[in-house]
Amino acid sequence: MAEIKKDKQFFTASKVFFLLIVIPLLLVAFLITRGIFELGDTARKRATVVLDEKLKDEIKLRAVHVADKAADFLRERERDMLIATILPTTETAYKEFTNKNKQPLWIKKEGKIVKILAPLYTEMSLVDRAGNEIIKIVGGEVVPKAGLLNLNVGDPANTTYKSEDYFSKTKNLAKGDVYMSHVTGWYVNRSEFEKGKRFTGIIRMATPLFDKNGFTGIITLALDARHVAKFTDNIIPTRAGYVLEADVSTGDYAYMVDNRGFVISHPNDYHIAGLYRNGTPVPPVTEKTLDEMTKKGEGVLNLNLLGFMDPVLPEIARDAAAGHSGSKISKFAGHTKFTAYAPIEFYCKSYPEPAGFGWVGMEVDVEKFNETAMKTSQNIEKEATAWMTTIIIIIVASVIILFLISIILARGITRSIEAEVPPESQEAHYDDDEECDDGDE
Hints:
alpha+beta; 2 domains; six-stranded antiparallel sheet; five-stranded antiparallel sheet
């Protein structure tokens, strides 16, 4: 009888312990597993979203936003140019002006991506009415007077890029007008680009100076073109945040085009319009010159001339030059391309309406985008499955361990109960023969 009670106590203690521990554990495990499943399912749904109308609209809005920011930036630089006209005409004042005007740039330095404060202006100069440079700052340092002798910038051959005509263009402007050149810089070919070289040009700005006797000269600033290019260089249309450089092979990148149709910002710098070392411009690719220029590693792009590659590109260039934003779908090399575009609404004498400064383009290869989304979805599914498998293994192992612990603890509890029961309270056992003997007496 006592053995039956002990067994009952043992199994009751085991069950209570097991239920009190295992049921909450299973409940928590269920909630965690469900949460991982739902999170994975949500992530998969987001990852597998094709380039639908909503996402297309978001990219179009982003193109407009980037173009507006670029236009605001250029208006600020125009104001800087006018502020420069009221500075004291001294080397100290000009040097201080160029050294104080800085903005952030992302660059690669010693194999690492770092953010630096870089000067907006690589050059600043004061030029007299005859075209002679009186004061010149280059790279934040004063150019000695001896270095300015016989350098009359009225002759384009004497300018930094051997072909700049900013003096003749500026001296005929009215007071308060600002001349702004197109992006100018030495061309970077494909071989140089693949070895790590990047395009580093300028936008030359200038405004005339006057006294009571009339025209006295001009003042110039050379805006580092990287500060303009960063608006499209550091973004990917379908992703939030910023990058150092986009990868064209993904088909998901942004670029910038000037009012002539020339590319002035692109992940592949060999598509950017530039100059040979003698100051002559590298010609843009055409249907006739494509093979020849590809062999030379030259690939300057003017979208007005690329109808032979994609008939939609000249249409986009014309629409953007008319001051319109929008998007178009095209087929190129077996791929469907979505292109959103928006005009950079900055206007001056050099960049008149409606084209203004140019436009921003954002391109997405639809097939590649969907393929990447599917791969991401599959990776998420694998990861979610792995997590759920791990949790199930942990739960099963935990239940087994807890079951064993419950048995051990239950035995201990039972023994403790036995030890506490006094001997006299134990049930008496009588021998049948003794009962009979007592009866006989």
